[in-house]
Amino acid sequence: MTRPVTPIQSLLQWASPAGPRARLSVLVFHRVLPQPDPLFPQDMHAQRFQALCAWLASWFQVLPLDVAVAHLKNRTLPARAACITFDDGYADNRHVALPILKQHQLPATFFIATDFVNGGCMWNDRLIAAVRAATTPQLDLQDLGLACLPVRTLAERRAAISHLIDQLKYLPLAQRAALAEQVAQRAGVAVPNALMMTSVDLLHLRHSGMQIGAHTLSHPVLARLDDTQARQEIQGSQQFLQQLLGERVSLFAYPNGQPGVDYGQRHVEQVRGLGFDAAVSTQWGASTADDDPFQIRRFTPWDTTRWRFAARMVANLHAQR
């Protein structure tokens, strides 16, 4: 017996019908925490992700990313098509997100910055750990060319983290890493070594039916690298994953992902030339058959209620018409 179409499904089907006029919604996540984090109360955690996955399973036809992109190119995408993706490679993706995805029978693609597999720590996580653990009323980093940041309250700590990430994000790789390490040392914080997935975790994800994609070696801003460095970053992560998984890796995610800011057309051509089938950005919106499959749009509404989340997804589908 066919189930009746719900009002939300009707809205989504109007915004993304099947066939040539279809639009592909791709959601992007990073971490899914076991419990809410008082320092970052808006960050995704297990309870919220459980609700979100239930909505997605009910409203959308959630497809593996490679399958969805192939249908999009051929103009055969089903109505209400969506994909789920994760960036960077956090361990909670395997331990928290995966069981919820499997419960709802939802496929997902995990894009991995491979230098951090097996005990690595990304530069921004060093900063977060430093500010979170600071025991003084302020973190004086003026001699590092940064600032003297108050860290008495949670709000001040959030502001300090945001300021530091903004200051370091577009620095050269070596300088960014060195400054992040110096900030951590100044706060007397040991580098977190269990935030990211291990090789065993990645194999478990793949054996659970999830897809693994490349996300560079060290998560640089590709636009700040020369062509040789950028190619090494892109190809190196692909080769690491292909050797680990014993299969071709055909999907790529640009770090940070804003076109014209974090990567350019030369990087799109490098990704295409390295044999990938598709790549994803972080430009908001939904992709059509006429869009570049090497710059698939991604978006995640952070609304916490059912109807607000649905409305944002409909608006995102409708935005580029």
CATH topology-level name of the largest domain: TIM Barrel
Q: Output the number of helix runs.
A: 11
Order of helices and strands: HEHEHEHEHEEHHHEHEHEH
Strand content: 5-15%
What's the total number of strands?
Answer: 9
Write down the Rg.
20 Å
Broad structural category: alpha/beta
Q: Biggest sheet, open or closed, and with what strands and sense?
A: 5 strands, parallel
Percent of residues in helices: 40-55%
Count of discrete domains:
2
Q: What is the average per-residue confidence, as pLDDT, rounded to a whole number?
A: 94
Report the span from N to C terminus.
35 Å
Could you state the CATH homologous superfamily of the largest domain?
Answer: Glycoside hydrolase/deacetylase
The CATH C-level name of the largest domain is: Alpha Beta
Poorly predicted segments: none
Judging from the principal axes of the Cα atoms, what is the shape? globular
- What is the correct CATH architecture of the largest domain? Alpha-Beta Barrel
Topology:
Layout: H1 7-15, E1 25-29, H2 46-59, E2 61-62, H3 65-74, E3 81-88, H4 91-103, E4 109-112, H5 123-133, E5 138-140, E6 148-150, H6 154-168, H7 173-186, H8 199-207, E7 211-214, H9 227-245, E8 251-253, H10 265-273, E9 278-280, H11 306-318
Provide an overview of this structure.
It is a single chain. With 321 residues, the protein is of the alpha/beta class. It has two domains: 7-118 and 194-318, Alpha-Beta Barrel (TIM Barrel), CATH 3.20.20; 123-186, no CATH class. Helix content is 42%, strand content 11%. The chain is built from eleven helices and nine strands. It has helices at 7-15, 46-59, 65-74, 91-103, 123-133, 154-168, 173-186, 199-207, 227-245, 265-273, 306-318, and strands spanning 25-29, 61-62, 81-88, 109-112, 138-140, 148-150, 211-214, 251-253, 278-280. The strands form three sheets. Strands 1, 2, 3, 4 and 7 form a five-stranded parallel β-sheet that branches. A hairpin with a 7-residue loop joins strand 5 and strand 6. Helix 1 runs parallel beside helix 11. It starts with 6 loop residues before the first helix and ends with a helix. The relative contact order is 0.15.
